[in-house]
Amino acid sequence: MLEIDVRRVRRTRPTLRTQADFDRVFAQNRNVKGRLISAWAACGDGDTDAVPAAPPPPASQATRRLGMKVTKKTFRLATERNRAKRLVRESFRLLLPKLKPQAWDLIVVPRRAILDVKEPDLRKEMSWACWKLGLKSGEQGSSPST
Fold first, then answer.
1. Residue 43 Cα distances to 17, 46, 60, 73, angstroms
2. Section 14-19 average pLDDT
3. In whole angstroms, what is the distance from residue 133 CA to residue 17 CA?
4. Which of helix, strand or coil describes residue 146?
5. Of 102, 146, 110, 98, whose CA–CA distance to 36 is shortest?
6. In total, how many domains does the chain have?
7. CATH no. for residue 94?
8. Is residue 120 part of a domain?
9. What is the CB neighbour count within 10 angstroms for residue 16?
10. Cα 47 to Cα 13: distance, rounded to the nearest angstrom
11. How far apart are CA 80 and CA 19, in angstroms?
């Protein structure tokens, strides 16, 4: 019988990895800027239109990917960069069930102010950004404070 060491199995996160993926999302120029983050979005299937209105594919086929650009220019210390990435990943994870099930890509560029807030505040701003980008259905939520 095949035994799997659960401690060594790593869950893969659907992320943007190649420069071509990042370039495609940035080229579509669908972006929103807030106090804590800047975000860009694109359809995951390479379309240049907004999130498609077609019926959603099965969950196993829809890939919703997250990419981040966390630079040394913004966050000098590695611990600051890691904290910013951790906050964005956790906010995205908690927000994912509320987002549209179609395939899309999202790039988040955290700003320095992200280090001074707690995760619920970031989740609120990410929810607003996703709504503005058309990735979230339903009510707007509240806009980020300026």
1. 16, 6, 16, 29
2. 88
3. 21
4. coil
5. 110
6. 1
7. 3.30.230.10
8. yes
9. 20
10. 22
11. 23
Domain that holds residue 90: 14-48+59-133
When the pLDDT of each residue in the chain is averaged and rounded to a whole number, the result is 83
DSSP reduced 3-state for 85: helix
pTM to 2 decimal places: 0.77
Q: Say if 86 falls within a structural domain.
A: yes
Q: Which amino acid is at 69?
A: K
Position 75 in a domain: yes
Check if the beta carbon of residue 43 is closer than 8 Å to that of residue 103: yes
The CA distance from 48 to 25, in Å, is 9
User: Which tens digits make up the pLDDT trace of 102-144?
Assistant: 889 999 999 999 999 999 999 999 999 999 999 987 766 555 5
Instruction: Confirm whether 146 is domain-assigned.
Output: no
Convert the pLDDT of each residue in 66-109 to its tens digit.
999 999 999 999 999 999 999 999 999 999 999 988 889 999 99
Residue type, 23: D
